[in-house]
Design a protein that fits this description.
Layout (H helix, E strand, L loop, with lengths): L17 E3 L1 H6 L4 E6 L11 H14 L4 E6 L4 H13 L2 E6 L12 H8 L3 E4 L5 H17 L4 E3 L7 H21 L5 E6 L3 H13 L4 E6 L4 H19 L11 E2 L12 H14 L8 H13 L8 E6 L3 H5 L2 H10 L10 E2 L8 E2 L1
Helix pairs in contact: 2-3, 2-6, 3-4, 6-7, 6-8, 7-8, 9-10
Length: 358
């Protein structure tokens, strides 16, 4: 079965840009870094989940669904984009979110604020145990069916064989862009969370990017558990595509960059966010892409890649999550040194127009 045979609901304009990052490369002393700008998908402030949702919601519509149910963390990018996609397609949406720090009287921020903006129904679970979340989604689905609705459950992060196909398509897109640019990518690096993006790229690279090694940086599970999850999703993706055999090698997942756990920023992640912003104007987030880039920086500093290598970093989006961490970001900026105006404000209130510091 080809990609074109699978049901798909178009949600964005493709391809997303593929940009060279010469100042970031120079700041890190090589290799040659490039970025695939999947933060620029044109739906709901963008992100990688749009690619998965095209295939997931295409499947849902084919099956007659009118309401989408999906789980996520309190600041889930996937939940935000699922809500936006449902509004684009005229579907109802229920988000089953794990508590984290539940909003009290303060206004919601970041992705959660956007969930409300898109009019999603939000159900909070008692805890983040898999069993609790699954039971909550089953309860919502049963309630909707009693009302004559037709629910469709999208898994965590949109990561299953259906959604991961979106990143097989992305690999085909990267192959066309790299050919046009005349650049061969020796390595491709992506965040590994729920695993679907990594799995799709793993299959897609095996099919369309000969000689490109795919690397993941885990932001939650231990590397071995993350790799096993990706490998299982690779098998599901291969089955969805109807391939006779699995063309992909075992997943490579690097650890040591998740810090204290999912959703908890690290100092290395903040360093990566600051470096990307001040060398290339790229906005990363502290939950996913900041930690992934900190992993790439760590691997470069360890000498894992030759300075002549071409490396493609897949920017999966998540900037609304940065806004939800405004206080932590401000504190990090205030703690840094040698970065210019971080802890000072420049004004031109003097009559001679020259700036002074206050």
């Amino acid at each position: 079965m080809s990609l074109g045979d699978l049901p798909r609901a178009r949600l964005s304009t493709w391809p997303t840009p593929l940009d060279e990052c010469p100042r970031l490369s120079a700041a890190l002393g090589g290799p040659h870094l490039w970025v695939k700008r999947d933060d620029l998908t044109d739906l709901g402030l963008g992100g990688n989940k749009v690619r998965k949702l095209e295939y997931l919601l295409g499947d849902a519509i084919l099956k007659g669904a009118d309401t989408i149910i999906t789980p996520g963390a309190l600041q889930s990018n996937h939940a935000r984009l699922t809500a936006a996609a449902c509004r684009r397609l005229g579907l109802e949406v229920v988000l089953v979110l794990t508590p984290g720090h539940l909003p009290g009287r303060e206004a919601p921020q970041g992705n959660l604020l956007l969930d409300h903006l898109f009019g999603a129904r939000i159900v909070f679970t008692a805890d983040d145990a898999d069993e609790t979340v699954a039971a909550a989604m089953a309860d919502v689905a049963g309630e909707l069916e009693l009302k004559g609705r037709h629910p469709y459950i999208v898994p965590l992060g949109g990561s299953d064989g259906v959604g991961s196909v979106g990143y097989v398509a992305a690999a085909l897109e990267i192959a066309a862009q790299s050919s046009e640019l005349g650049v061969h990518f020796d390595h491709l690096l992506v965040t590994t969370g729920s695993g679907g993006t990594h799995a799709g790229l793993q299959v897609g690279a095996a099919l369309h990017l000969a000689g490109t090694d795919v690397h993941g940086v885990t932001i939650s599970r231990e590397p071995a558990a993350s790799a096993a999850r990706v490998d299982a999703l690779v098998s599901a993706t291969v089955e969805r595509l109807g391939l006779s055999s699995n063309p992909a090698p075992p997943a490579v997942v690097h650890g040591g960059y998740a810090g204290e756990g999912y959703g908890i920023p690290t100092r290395a992640g903040w360093e990566a966010i600051l470096t990307a912003a001040r060398t290339e104007g790229l906005v990363l987030d502290p939950v996913y892409t900041g930690k992934a880039l900190s992993g790439l920086i760590g691997l470069i500093r360890e000498g894992a890649f030759p300075t002549t290598a071409n490396i493609l970093f897949v920017h999966t989006g998540g900037s609304p999550g940065l806004m939800a961490q405004a206080v932590a970001l401000h504190d990090y900026l205030a703690s840094t040194t040698g970065n210019g105006e971080t802890a000072e404000r420049v004004t031109t209130e003097r009559g001679d127009g020259r700036g002074h510091r206050v």
